[in-house]
């Protein structure tokens, strides 16, 4: 890093990916000259290496579920934290080099998640076509744009189709027109931001023993403090089949007393708790704070106890 | 209190009650000249009024259950705290004025708990006799000792029979020979003692609403922190039928982090938590401290959280 | 029982007790010529012996709590079942032989529950008087009515005062004017009645082991099936201190699928479940049937499972 | 289907996939002439269409987690059931056309799960190479075997490398040498087989409302009946972000009373329960049957209740 600390952001690219689109909606805006990386892993490694100040990567899609490359890299790699999130509706079209007609399409390329989200349309409209999955939807568009490409068409965003000079053979081809993808902005560990009143906290929890009631115990640590979860996903720990860890988004901020108490409870009972950050929710939804679980309630209880202890 | 602070102890008397016997086993020993009171209520009021420094009263019997006069007085009266407990095996005999034979016994007097504990013996040996219940077993012995008493015999402890000059017509007459009564030493609010590693904490819990799951929620506040209970008793709140509070003995000391967290949880969710003291257990049984619930575990979790909050 | 099966009802007497008053409100009415018994135990034994067809006894008071003589007799004695309940507001007065004035009263007699409920009034109005507790409020009135009685006054119901020719020195003397006592009609085991839609079921539950989480497990058997409890009371099992059983009233009828499943769950996990009957609630309150817990829901689930098992 | 019901099995092919290897280990053996399909979706559709009697597809990998194509197809497609499972250790090698050396490898192809499992090896040994993911490891080997293929090497099983005439450039290249994949044998709905004493049941559960405690309630339905889970995975319901269903493997057989009761509880409280079959466990592990949860315990409880109901 000659010349000082990196300030640019990396993202899961190339130019034209949904992640790239999401990057353009960041508030406050991303610094100039964002850096595309071909895989999530490379983008996150660039953050660790200090090549970029932060990186935006997809973490979850409303149709396909968790992005395992992101989940596992954050869970198992060197420490990183999430400092923000973006939600983006995802819309797919079928794009080809000018002059190609739908009837010509034999070989399609796209990202696995895009393939999964357009399966019904493909079965209905291109039952004979083969689909080869690649690194990203924008990379697929770029590949198709090559003059000598063996691929006839790409499934990608309109932005990517336009960018690489392709023409739309069909648009709005996702089986579920309301699909949304969630992206997270990731940086090296930094002091956690102030609570905004509508925050989310991401944790990865590893059990001491993988006994059957372990997940129930984890959920009770949250429930008994009135903390709701917005996402829970089991991931294999890569040891033996049936050995899982849990990736969780909890409502609230580590600065909230109820979540802090739940997290300390998890810390005491889990083999390991990976804290991946407290950050403002993209949907600005404030949590449902149950009676007796506000910060003031915790403070009053603490004062009472101190008086009892004399 | 002319002449300074009272130092003597009161007890549920008169001389010769089981409470009196229990008082003699206190460790450290009770100050000289203990003061008998005819009812539990009078003994506790004397503590509140500063007539005595503390009072010993029965709270629970292994056959008859809770002593409601004690439970309710502690729960509803002006604040008092328990600073110690005593366990005493209780053995009953039938005592009469010299010259009385078992065949002469028509009218027996004793305390209601004693009557309840000797019912089978009475049915077998004195099926025709009537039993009138009075204030205490020792008072019953004293009553029988009066020359002109209409009572022929008293059910009481050997100590009381001897003390009042009676003779034993039968001994070991309790239906359950292993009955034990538990007594508590009560004083005006004082700074809580140091944890001994084998302590008990007494609480009375009032619900915000008397909804059906309320007791379940209370128990979960303890269970989720690994705190075991040694006694739980519902008591009517004296408002409407079906409206209860719960008198509870929990293992551990208010100085133990896991119990402190449970108590703060109760404070936040209950309408009222009455703290009746943390004190050494008479049986010296140390609690089962589950993994992750020791004071060190709490301290480590707290440090971890402070680091996260940066 | 010469001449056939007993049809009369017994009750906790004598004439003039609150139980007697409650008996007069039974619907359908009690058969003619009810039989008073001096103690709860004698009334219940008369049922077992076939002397009476059923007996009415007090089980719970909104101020004093459970009537332990009744609870323990039903839990530990030969099988009996509850077939109905009555609620009765209880009002106390101070009654004396004609010619006695309040200033003359030195020695008062009554039932222990009545004494407990009028303590404040006694402290305020008769601070010097002694109170001797006896078998029932009506027996106390009868005792005072004796010309040569050493007692100056009885605390009892107006009905009892009138019946025994006494005059009221004071009325409405209970510390809590809204106290209610609940009575149960008990018979030898009979086929359980039809559900009315507003029923109650009484059970006594003994743990396999007295481990700390045992009560939590019991409560979860009910909660997980959406069954609410209206009463729960711990009672010592008469073995060692800290060894309890639980006397419980659950909402609903053994004919309700959700309660039946909860009861079978308890049967499988408890050392013993004593079924004391399903009977109409005196307050006619229908239970809150949560979604998925009605009999139809259970029937639909059962049909579904049968189809799966094919 | 000329000539009658299909008897052959389909599988996720082509020849040489891990699924194909797993198929060869089936006990009892698969019928002759298994039919390869290029995708999981095609294999399962062939079962629905009656082209094959059953199909073997991967469902879970100890490193990469659930196979979402399989999970979602079973959850959302027309009804199918699992009748058996196979576990297979997965070992990867790098295979190329004869004459290729490691230094020549620029472009590698394989299945996405294989790419994910060999990432570290690739980074260490082929940092410059690109990886294009395709439909299966065997298809990748077949692709590389084409004389004019633009791919230099495939990551696949030794079986596939041999089958397609490739040579190993490296073997044992998985980052985790102990990775295991689990496959399920799927057929159209058939009567469920007899319990073997070591069975597994697969369910998909949709919530009525996606409230935060919904997962806790599901887990309690199992836990309260002593049923352990061996796998739980959240999957988006494809409606909105944060709306999940849960794919679950529970220990036991629908013929086991405890699991049957849990399933009926889920049926009553969930919006939908998809039953995907009860079948013998590949590891032959018998469940831990807790006291009171065996079939005999359920039968005894049911008899008791019938007696109470008279």
TrEMBL record, chains A, B, C, D:
The keyword Cell membrane does not apply. Keywords: Amino-acid biosynthesis, Aromatic amino acid biosynthesis, Lyase, Phenylalanine biosynthesis. The keyword Ribonucleoprotein does not apply. It is an enzyme of class 4 (lyase). Its EC number is 4.2.1.51. Pathway: Amino-acid biosynthesis; L-phenylalanine biosynthesis; phenylpyruvate from prephenate: step 1/1. Signal peptide: none annotated. Residues 8-188 form the Prephenate dehydratase domain. PROSITE patterns: ACT (PS51671), PREPHENATE_DEHYDR_1 (PS00857), PREPHENATE_DEHYDR_3 (PS51171). Residues 203-284 form the ACT domain. It catalyses: prephenate + H(+) = 3-phenylpyruvate + CO2 + H2O. It comes from the Bacteria. InterPro entries: ACT-like_dom_sf (IPR045865), ACT_dom (IPR002912), Chor_mutase/pphenate_deHydtase (IPR008242), Preph_deHydtase (IPR001086), Preph_deHydtase_CS (IPR018528). This is Prephenate dehydratase. It comes from Microlunatus spumicola. The gene is pheA.
């Amino acid at each position: 890093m000659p010349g000082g600390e990196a300030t640019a952001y990396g993202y899961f690219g190339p130019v034209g990916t949904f992640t790239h689109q999401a990057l353009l909606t960041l508030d406050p805006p991303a610094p100039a000259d964002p850096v595309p990386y071909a895989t999530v892993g490379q983008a996150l490694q660039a953050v660790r290496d200090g090549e970029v100040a932060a990186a935006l990567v997809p973490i979850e899609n409303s149709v396909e579920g968790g992005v395992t490359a992101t989940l596992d890299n954050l869970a198992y790699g060197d420490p990183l934290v999430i400092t923000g999130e973006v939600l983006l509706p995802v819309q797919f079209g079928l794009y080809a080099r000018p002059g190609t007609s739908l009837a010509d399409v034999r070989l399609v390329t796209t990202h696995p998640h895009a393939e999964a989200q357009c399966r019904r349309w493909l079965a209905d409209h291109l039952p004979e076509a083969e689909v080869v999955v690649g690194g990203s939807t924008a990379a697929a568009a770029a590949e198709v744009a090559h003059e000598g490409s063996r691929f006839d068409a790409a499934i990608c965003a309109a932005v990517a189709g336009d960018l690489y000079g392709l023409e739309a053979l069909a648009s709005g081809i996702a089986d579920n027109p309301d699909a949304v993808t969630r992206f997270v902005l990731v940086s090296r560990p930094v002091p956690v931001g102030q609570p905004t009143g509508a925050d989310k906290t991401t944790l990865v929890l590893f059990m001491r023993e993988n006994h059957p009631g372990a997940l129930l115990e984890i959920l009770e640590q949250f429930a008994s403090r009135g903390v709701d979860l917005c996402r829970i996903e089991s991931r294999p720990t890569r040891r033996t089949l049936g050995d899982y860890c849990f990736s969780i988004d909890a409502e609230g901020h580590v600065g909230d007393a109820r979540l802090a108490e739940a997290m300390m409870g998890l810390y005491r009972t889990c083999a390991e708790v990976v804290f991946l950050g407290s950050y403002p929710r993209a949907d600005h939804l404030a949590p449902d704070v149950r009676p007796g679980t506000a910060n003031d309630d915790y403070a009053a209880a603490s004062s009472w106890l101190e008086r009892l202890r004399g």
